[in-house]
Fold these 2 entries.
Entry 1:
Amino acid sequence: MASEDSPLWMLLDEGQQMLASTAAQFLSKSAPVGRLRELPRAPGADGFSRALWAEMAELGWLGLQIPEAHGGLGLGFFDLAIVLEASGQTLMPEPFVSTLLLGAQALLLGGTDAQRARYLPGVADGSRLLALAYDERGMRGDLSRLRASATREADGFTLRGVKPHALDAHVADAIVVAARVEPGDAIGLFIVPRDAAGLAIEREQRMDLLNAATVRLDAVRVGEDAVVGPLETSEALLSAVLDRARIGLSAQMLGAMERAFEMTVAYLKERVQFGVPIGSFQALQHRAARLFIEIALARSSVLAAARAVDDRPAEVPRLAALAKAKCGEAFWQVAAEAIQMHGGIGMTAEHDIGFYFKRAQAAEVMFGDGATQRRRWAEACGY
Amino acid sequence: MASEDSPLWMLLDEGQQMLASTAAQFLSKSAPVGRLRELPRAPGADGFSRALWAEMAELGWLGLQIPEAHGGLGLGFFDLAIVLEASGQTLMPEPFVSTLLLGAQALLLGGTDAQRARYLPGVADGSRLLALAYDERGMRGDLSRLRASATREADGFTLRGVKPHALDAHVADAIVVAARVEPGDAIGLFIVPRDAAGLAIEREQRMDLLNAATVRLDAVRVGEDAVVGPLETSEALLSAVLDRARIGLSAQMLGAMERAFEMTVAYLKERVQFGVPIGSFQALQHRAARLFIEIALARSSVLAAARAVDDRPAEVPRLAALAKAKCGEAFWQVAAEAIQMHGGIGMTAEHDIGFYFKRAQAAEVMFGDGATQRRRWAEACGY
Amino acid sequence: MSEAPPLTEFRDEIRAWLEANAPASLRGTSPCGPFDGYWGGKKHPPVDPDVLRWRDLCLERGLTAPTWPKAYGGAGLDRDHAVVFYEELRAMGLPRPVVGFGFAMIGPTLLEFGNEAQKREHLPRICAGEIRWCQGYSEPNAGSDLANVQMRAVRDGDHFVVDGQKVWTSHADKSDWIFCLVRTDPTAKKQRGISFLLVDMDTPGVTPREIELISGSSPFCETFFEGVRVPLGNVVGEVNSGWTVAKALLGHERSMIGQSIGRAPGSGQRELVAKARHHLGAAEGPLPDPLLRDAIAHNGMDEEAFQLTLARLAQTREAGASPGSESSILKIAATEMKQRRYTLGMRIAGEEGLGWTDDGFDAQDVDFTRGWLRSRANTIEGGSSEIQLNIIAKRVLGLPDGK
Amino acid sequence: MSEAPPLTEFRDEIRAWLEANAPASLRGTSPCGPFDGYWGGKKHPPVDPDVLRWRDLCLERGLTAPTWPKAYGGAGLDRDHAVVFYEELRAMGLPRPVVGFGFAMIGPTLLEFGNEAQKREHLPRICAGEIRWCQGYSEPNAGSDLANVQMRAVRDGDHFVVDGQKVWTSHADKSDWIFCLVRTDPTAKKQRGISFLLVDMDTPGVTPREIELISGSSPFCETFFEGVRVPLGNVVGEVNSGWTVAKALLGHERSMIGQSIGRAPGSGQRELVAKARHHLGAAEGPLPDPLLRDAIAHNGMDEEAFQLTLARLAQTREAGASPGSESSILKIAATEMKQRRYTLGMRIAGEEGLGWTDDGFDAQDVDFTRGWLRSRANTIEGGSSEIQLNIIAKRVLGLPDGK
């Protein structure tokens, strides 16, 4: 009934509302943000809870968007975004972005039947984790500067290169690697199992407590069957995967900023200075009200972008840029104001609010910062 | 005593303090901002007060910086900046920028003895007005796009081109024109008397009530003696003149923002809503306090830049960019907040504050907007 | 249409009817905003006959005010059906048949608070665009403190005698009636003692005078009242209880302002891009100034996020949920976005944006400059941004009052 | 130096003396800021012998605290002469011989409010860098409301017995003495009933504990006081009138923070440009990213405007005028500028700025990231920005109190 010109539908239906509230409840109980303090950071530790990941698989959340044929529920990306938002509220470091977005979306959009059959059921049941290694030092997300190479051999390819900061690569069972095919100039995607010879993975320590690793490819041999998506379209596929990651990450950012704001408003009401709650100071009231507006605008952007993945693929690049840029700006503002309004206590490691500030910065620069998104938006809009 | 590394001296000495307070007193009495409403705007009207200009000449202000040999007082640019600041307080539309900055500085920096002798005494005694016509449609201040031409002839040059928005060209006795010398590629400056054949001047109506005109050069013949500065260095001369104009205009902007802020703070104290002065609302208090800080920063920038003209020529380009950018930003913020804090009354033509807002926008874009100044600053700083 | 058909059917029906009947000359001419169309009234200047024909066509089916009861000239439709009607108008670029404060503000208020006689007297004439209304709330010394009403109405037999002054009465000089707040009990505390009064502008003693703004002439007036006699029956609601009526009407006003500024999706960005292409001399491709390009994209994104939010809240309403204090969010977001858009446009125009007349400047740039000046009032009128922020802080976030 | 020579002569004299005596190893090593140098104290870790030699050299001439009276270990210079001394140090890149809260805060306060015995006891030891001081103002539930002092001091004979807790006591674990606010009259109204007390950190019952910040370990401590016995003679000013002393000290603190953040002229911009060249891989010439270039220039301009303002206010003071509530301006401008600089640096670093350790990241980026996190406290500590804005609004602009 709605024409293509009518606005995207941004509301949750009844089932989705239930999913949202179940997820929020479950996760704020099972995955409170404070556990970031305890999840061991030592090399060798995973930095997230495998038990919790398995529980979420049980609940069906990991396979929400995976086709029934591969063990999932076959719902939409919009449904997945609902769980992502909930996971963002407590800044969960579980491998959502790496496995459900970067890895699974690459296979959903460009994987062969064999690849999908091999990996997706394990994603849905929580037994397999995936990662994507595409960015390189100094590349700053600009694919034209990608240097890792895939040398064509008689029976496949040899991959060489270094990919730092690959989310969750330290635990991934398979890693999708972007490399420039030689001879030629195209960028190809290759799925590489964790135990491939020549693959070295070095855990990194991030300030925002997401987990990442440097992936070193020292003449890693893969067969033709490792190619994800036809080589001719791999670069477009990579862009599409990154757009979905942007939207999914934005959903997490939305949840995070909402929670940080909630904590701050609660603090404004409870903290007494000069004999009154500090929330009665008009200067703080106005600043809080402005944050509220920014969150409302970010929320619309995320919901529309997530819906577009399911309903209007042509609008995805533009709306992914919108959602990422709006959430980046709003989350950062909310988190910075949250620290300022909490005062000294917010600066201490024992208070939770600092985690939100760190994540806000990390999320802002992941998959392209605000300026990058605006450039992509302008391109999509023809100027 | 002060080394080159020590900060520029930004204070007024006793004589300068007296000049500042005399000028401020005299001008707020003789040139209240409200007269902008009455100064006739009809074509043919000057748009400023010739009587007042003559009075200021009597007071010595117009010749402050002109050498004694040419009828001036031979003081510094810093002294001139003091009068400019006072003139900015009431947004005077008198030809300060055109005559004392653009015109006179071109002659001071690059004029021949004959040119200086011909024009500067008249500038100092108020009998002669000057203008500079350099910018063109679509040029946006980028000299490489200047198209007006000066064709070399046996006995001089023929000038052709159209120069819109030349400040006070409608009353100037002589106009310094920038044109590209043909053959060749250099930009030359030529001083053209008002009555030159082929020179047509069309008055413009500006929203900020400064006065300007379109200058049309339809094969205007000038002699060799019209060249200002050797042709080889004219472009550098033009840049130096524009830098002084930037600093002088910044001084006016400083005066203007200080007055607009003063009016606003007074209004905050006097205007009662909900039974209390609106200045008691903390949100407005904090915004006003932030403006106060911005003004303090702008003030230092202007004083240092003006002092550099006299003491440290090498620092002028960088500090001119600084002063113009800081004042542009601060004046605009002050003026926009002034309107908002005045509420509805500030939007009416009968209230004075609107004049400040219009001037803030005009001043921001004159001689290069903030982004342009920042580009010039980065160039001066080597990045 | 006595029992409205299902929405899909209704949409088909409306579309067919529009295709068959809507004047060709009006198609594709309007964004169909709540203030884009025929304002009506006895003082309206001569107008294209197709505009009146279009009004008559709709009026006949009650579609000038689709959600109002049939008894008063409406079509008795529910909100969903009305939305479908407007969507179809928008799809064809048709203006709403009648617009104005009558339809948007006083009509809904009379439906809620008016007595039967008032409804019968005024609503049909609003539907027909016969009478144009204006709003008399603000007073010279009140500003944001709307309840600070000084204009007196003193009872004299079966009339009130009104003396005082209103300001910011938009289009008062073109309006036939004014709804205004008057103080009927000077001894009562601020919000009490106010009555909501309907006044015929032709009554002797009512004098509107145009206010000139910093942008030039304006729709705003000061309106003076000197010994104006108004029948007692023109009070809406109870005498001295007008503040309740007034507040309800303010909600309508805010949401109108928010929506009217929204404009057609993406139109603000298109305008800025065109402006940049013109002033930078760049006909196509990426804009050559990366800073302006970034700023335009920033603004374009703000615009899209706002329009999506508008749509989302409309969807929430359609879904039957109460969207809460949304109008304050929309009002601030819309007006500040508009100001930022104009500010950026002025930056793009540079010195070409400094004209007051087209002597030496392009008329298009001059219009833009005046629009820019006018936009500064958007965050003041209709409840200033500060007032909206107070509302959000207190009503939505539940932050406590100051000591 | 009993009667200070004219400034020019004094400068020549100082310069010659420095050329002849200042340790070569220290030249060119320091911006000579008020917190760049030897902090002293009994718990100081081993230090380069030249630092101590430099301290001794200056101490001998009273130049560790040039404006303090000779009787207490200073040089008895006026402000102008002291400025000349520091200018010459800066010109040679020499550190101040002794720095710290003793010199910057409690010393000036004792000079104004201390009694003769207190001055004789403490000032010479501050001049010599023997004793390091820390500040005990904030308490867990006080925040910006500094006068909300809960830590109790109860009189017991010729001692006070102190119980309670202080927070944000910078370097308490490395300090020998603490000056703190204690409540000596719990029945009096807030600002009254407070006393200003000097406490030897070695007294039994004083326990500092490090606070970990979001940036990692920090100089801040919580300091607990349990039955700490302090002689009555350690009260500065009158008992119950400590708030007056406290406020005077706060002015010193704000201006120290503002000045210390200022850093060497242009150094912030240089750091950002170097960072951008590194991360963009652009060795020279205009930076290839125009948006970053613009943002760096914006920041560089802010930095220069701030430094010029610092210089202008210093010149105003030198000229003998009172610069008024400048310290609030400087505090806000300096701290927010610093935060913007760090924010921009993080934008430049992009994903390379996300490291917590150098596993997979550059150590230099990791340090920057921790500095960025630390910088968020700058607008909170030493009187939050909100408090400074209140001060400017009320004391400088004279805006009225809320109802």
Entry 2:
Amino acid sequence: MKLIEAIIKPFKLDEVRRALTAKGVEGLTVSEVKGFGRQKGHTEMYRGAEYVVDLLPKIKLEVLVRDADVEELIGAIQDAASTGKIGDGKIFVHPVADVIRIRTGERGEAAI
Amino acid sequence: MKLIEAIIKPFKLDEVRRALTAKGVEGLTVSEVKGFGRQKGHTEMYRGAEYVVDLLPKIKLEVLVRDADVEELIGAIQDAASTGKIGDGKIFVHPVADVIRIRTGERGEAAI
Amino acid sequence: MKLIEAIIKPFKLDEVRRALTAKGVEGLTVSEVKGFGRQKGHTEMYRGAEYVVDLLPKIKLEVLVRDADVEELIGAIQDAASTGKIGDGKIFVHPVADVIRIRTGERGEAAI
Amino acid sequence: MFTRRRALLAALVWSAVSLSAGTALAQEDQLSAGDTAWIMTSTALVLLMTLPGLALFYGGLVRTKNVLSILMQCLISAGLIGVFWILVGYSLAFGDGNSIIGDLSKVGLAGITVDTLSGTIPEYVFVMFQGMFAIITPALMLGAFAERMRFGPYLAFIGIWIIVVYCPLAHQVWGGGWLADFGAIDFAGGLVVHMSSGFSALVAAIMLGKRRGYGKEPMPPHSVPLTVIGASLLWVGWFGFNAGSQLAADGTAGLAFLNTNTATAAAVLGWVGIEWMHHGKPTVLGAATAAVAGLVSITPACASVTPMGSIAVGIGASIVCYVAVTMLKPAAGYDDSLDVFGVHGVGGAWGAIATALFISETTDAGWGGQIGIQLASVAYVAVVAPLLTFIILTVLKLVFGNLTVDEEGEHVGLDISEHSESAYTGAPGAAAG
Amino acid sequence: MFTRRRALLAALVWSAVSLSAGTALAQEDQLSAGDTAWIMTSTALVLLMTLPGLALFYGGLVRTKNVLSILMQCLISAGLIGVFWILVGYSLAFGDGNSIIGDLSKVGLAGITVDTLSGTIPEYVFVMFQGMFAIITPALMLGAFAERMRFGPYLAFIGIWIIVVYCPLAHQVWGGGWLADFGAIDFAGGLVVHMSSGFSALVAAIMLGKRRGYGKEPMPPHSVPLTVIGASLLWVGWFGFNAGSQLAADGTAGLAFLNTNTATAAAVLGWVGIEWMHHGKPTVLGAATAAVAGLVSITPACASVTPMGSIAVGIGASIVCYVAVTMLKPAAGYDDSLDVFGVHGVGGAWGAIATALFISETTDAGWGGQIGIQLASVAYVAVVAPLLTFIILTVLKLVFGNLTVDEEGEHVGLDISEHSESAYTGAPGAAAG
Amino acid sequence: MFTRRRALLAALVWSAVSLSAGTALAQEDQLSAGDTAWIMTSTALVLLMTLPGLALFYGGLVRTKNVLSILMQCLISAGLIGVFWILVGYSLAFGDGNSIIGDLSKVGLAGITVDTLSGTIPEYVFVMFQGMFAIITPALMLGAFAERMRFGPYLAFIGIWIIVVYCPLAHQVWGGGWLADFGAIDFAGGLVVHMSSGFSALVAAIMLGKRRGYGKEPMPPHSVPLTVIGASLLWVGWFGFNAGSQLAADGTAGLAFLNTNTATAAAVLGWVGIEWMHHGKPTVLGAATAAVAGLVSITPACASVTPMGSIAVGIGASIVCYVAVTMLKPAAGYDDSLDVFGVHGVGGAWGAIATALFISETTDAGWGGQIGIQLASVAYVAVVAPLLTFIILTVLKLVFGNLTVDEEGEHVGLDISEHSESAYTGAPGAAAG
Ligand SMILES: Nc1ncnc2c1ncn2[C@@H]1O[C@H](COP(=O)(O)OP(=O)(O)O)[C@@H](O)[C@H]1O
Ligand SMILES: Nc1ncnc2c1ncn2[C@@H]1O[C@H](COP(=O)(O)OP(=O)(O)O)[C@@H](O)[C@H]1O
Ligand SMILES: Nc1ncnc2c1ncn2[C@@H]1O[C@H](COP(=O)(O)OP(=O)(O)O)[C@@H](O)[C@H]1O
């Protein structure tokens, strides 16, 4: 099992989710984060004082997947999330030692 | 050491935390996330337009624990978080390479 | 590659970010979390009813880094985030299986 | 010469007489544009108290998942009672009737035209001014069963309550009923509005049961700023409530206005002082609560006490309401979610009694006698209103089965379970690119 | 003796005459402090409708990233039209002129002093009261092209629209123009304010095109509480709008006030009932929308129908606006972001027609005749306003190239792309230590 | 015949005389319900400016962790000064006294009854109207030391300041003191309210020192919408402040009303234009700030300039305040957190001078002479208010040791460190299931 963590542009969330469910993903977890990277931020103004906001809103998406599905799902995320512009984000693949479904106590792939 | 990551129902947070501290856990980190899974969402209405909200509020809880404590704490979380209904959530167990306490610079199990 | 995850005090974020960019880090992701630990919380009052708030606001910072840079960056974070008082937080180092830049499809260290 | 002089004199006298007659008429039988202007303004101010004043005061106090249910219950009070009042409410409260309740002579505002006066103002203006009181009173109660009552039963409850509890009480005090004859002083509604709703609310809180988790987990306000905006608008709007109750723009209205502000200020000071001494720190929520407690307490008294007296009323309010909210409630163990009883019930009763305690000009009943009258009136409302409320809710329980939402509904919150809406959507997907 | 008596009599008669003349004068030619008080109050209330009423009503409905652009467009309407009105607007609307438009005789308020009266109130007060109407009307339109229109073109649009569409219409109905002569009844602006803005808004929504993602992804309100605060303040402020339009504090003002509240309450009840039956649950957003729909509809009718009639107007409003917003819009496929057409256009038209349908005293035209007049007036505004708006926007497209923000700007939101600001900063770094 | 005629004539003359005497009396010695209605309305509007107007305007500008401290400081100003004003404030400001300060003759409002008049309105109404001015003035200052001053010292500070600075200044300008005799024009309080608080605030900001991190990290407003609501309510409430200062509902009140709106609109336009040219984009915060700057500036001038003149006052305000806020402050390096000095100090001074510059009817002093008088008055307040404030704060430093919170308190924010409360609780645990 692997945990795929994707940092994407917020307005791409719907599309990515659709792409993943189309590939059979049945669960995922998202959170609001802010990202700093090569994408340049914007300037904000406050009574004449300008300052640069370079922590931009991003969505972090976590999906636990079977090892066999990793590549396919990475591809699906990438296709859906890509705009070709700087700031499209990253996908991290994490090893996972175990997984438990709280409701049933199932473990491992059965719990995904 | 392992990082236990649990996705639970928000109203179970207090109970889970009590269960963990009862087992000697002295630190943890929580964040607000939204989860999509088998649990069906609800319908919202906006001037006659209905749409389904299937990203439901969840709490993500992260606890770094000694390898020896993993099983006991998983059990504690499961007991406290379980309602028996779909949507109770998941527990992921992650390997951790190292841990540092910022204040003291302690490393490894001493820093937990 | 490793994913460095640091839980720090919110008002230290700017400093830590400056320290990291000074060391050549070009990207990172932050989120708002709440932490429970040895740091004692504060009391809040609501029409005479007092209750203890011991989940304190923290910032979680995630940086994916080359293996070779791990130690240097841990040091940088620690220096910048430390106030010497309880509650300064933790740094976790996670193994990472893979990383992909969504925009280009680059993989591994090239995608950092 | 002589003749002319006498004629002149006569003319002068008559001029004067007719002039002052004109003035007198203006005060009794003629429309006064000034009075009308003030009462229309007051009417708008009293609506402001409910929408958005009370809606925000209560809305800020609940948890995020229930804020819309509060706003909805305030909105629908304006909707339902706004129509009811025209159809039958006004007639039941202010129709001649008997000493208990009005009659149906003014159903649908029959017989009222743009020329009908009520004192120096158009009756339409009087109808609407009183209508705004009828709108806010049942809405005051919703704080007691906030975060659990279903919308349907709520609607039925306030619809019946206004007819069964409010209209009779309004008639008895202001419509020529027995409490007025008895000599009870209730200038702007300490008995009719605040005690009636506060004591009814207590019964409702007990009958509907506690919120799940009450007493075990903290249920802090989701937005104290909303609550402070609400308290502020209540404060501003209350000038219409109290000074408008004079139904004229004159010196007594001015006194009522000044006393309203002064008592409220004193209550804020008092509560802040008590909290500071008691807990080491004064809270904003305390100050906002104090403001409402002060406003409630000065309501019956505002035209009967001196400004110095109003300071006493306000400080007294901060003490009795503080004790009710922070000690009585936990000791008794009922879940009056937003302290309707502690603030409106207790504050209203205190105000009604304080009216006599600090009265500036003793009535025929004498100082002690008036205290007796006020105490008796307080006791009357404290018994009748909850009793009737108990009966109404008992019947509604039979009809609806359950007046509160189920466990699932309480967990996800009333906004979604009752209204299919979320208050705030700044979540993933709504954020910027 | 005889002489004296006659002299006395004569003196008395003259006293009476001069007294009643004084009264009559007071009604026609003398300043009435009471009327002035009410109209100044009303003027403040009408500004409250725009700032912060409408700003919040619309501001809560958009997504987080666009809320400031809404607030800004409301603020700048007060800024731009506030100045324009003094410079030329008032003169174009209320200068003598012809049957179509006023003239330039009162440019810069030339000739008006503190002693100039307009009826029983200072003309300055009348100027400002009407100025507040001019401020809110163009701001009403912004809901139609919310979340996409650029600020510069918006400014140009409302600046031109007020001169080309609003001032002539105001003149035609209230300034002595042809619609008044024609017999159209539009007490407080169903035609001039709501239909003109609602129908213009529809054209603008269509010409500016849909928001990216419209129809594909949900675009829920970022804060329903803000919207409810806005609707509440609109409700409160509307008393000034409608009852103020009588320009006096009298019985007719009282009727207008009462009808305004009653129709609005009825519309809320109606909409809640319809939603309940149609979707199984009533929504808060529905109730808030209904309130505005009710307020819009009673605007032209508020002085012409009985209170019972106003209930009919309000319920009718809930039906026609519900259908327009939830069925007509999706069916037709235009993106009127915040339903300006469905609420103000349709509600205004309904109100104008309902004015005749439920009229309490038939006019010279007779019941049917007045319906005809109202229908013709509605048709006139429904054609002229959108036509002129179409021309203005066509010209502005040529001048500005693009009236809406580009894709990037729409994704990050207008707050950042147009104003370099974020509404809420509670983000990392702003939080506590 | 002859006799009768003369008698008749005489009677007529006397009728006329008595009539006009009646009218004259009404203006001087008799209660006018219309004037009373307007001043009670104005009084409510001026409280609206503080609660919730100013509270939100300032509350939105601070960081999330300090918003409650702002709301509390506004609430407690109403609490403390609301009581103080009745006890001694009114007497010190409006008791006969000498040319510097009033006396203690009206302590506790001694001698005032419901029949006591002040002009054509009840003195109670006058007391309360002025009391609302006294409540807002010290609260204006809190923006200068926001996010750092402790609550206790704040309370002591405003309590002393109102007695030492405000009451004397109010007496000198409005209570029959020397500035009135000197010929200073300050219709609604440019000197007394805005300059006094603005210049005192500057001293306080400097004496309390900068916020930690000031100038190094951005400290953006946590909620611009709250600030816009606040600015909007200030705008609406200010009509009571300015037009109410005429103490009558007449033509001059109408002019003051119209000028208030027009100058404010002009200031918004001006600031938006300046920002657009200077930074490429106009901001909402700029527009809201401009509104307040415009309102401040027209305050002393609103009854003395023509509508066209008010446009000049407003545009001037946008220029001088823009320069003060965006250039002077960073250059000088003080941390006036929310720009009290830049807006109220500078705007108030500009307004006081502009009153003479654009005066419509020259006074006895002549155009130049009046400018001199205004300049001298501005200089007087600019010296006296800060001087007295400096002394007060120096003493308070000795008494309290530290007027600001410690580092820990500043990091977690004043809401928790001073009031044990969090503004918003939507955090884990409060969310839905
Ligand atoms: N080294 C990193 N560690 C953690 N997150 C990163 C890292 N680099 C980038 N990110 C995340 O990815 C987002 C996009 O990165 P950016 O450099 O702007 O564009 P791109 O992914 O197109 O190269 C950032 O906003 C940040 O959230
Ligand atoms: N494959 C997955 N990857 C990441 N998170 C998941 C995954 N499956 C479920 N979750 C999380 O667990 C929550 C509960 O899952 P759900 O399928 O609704 O119920 P249950 O855990 O009872 O099977 C989801 O809301 C989501 O946050
Ligand atoms: N075992 C743990 N697992 C996860 N997070 C932890 C753990 N221990 C501490 N933390 C995080 O680190 C923060 C600081 O910990 P605390 O014990 O208060 O101070 P210190 O790091 O100085 O020992 C906590 O608020 C929490 O967010």
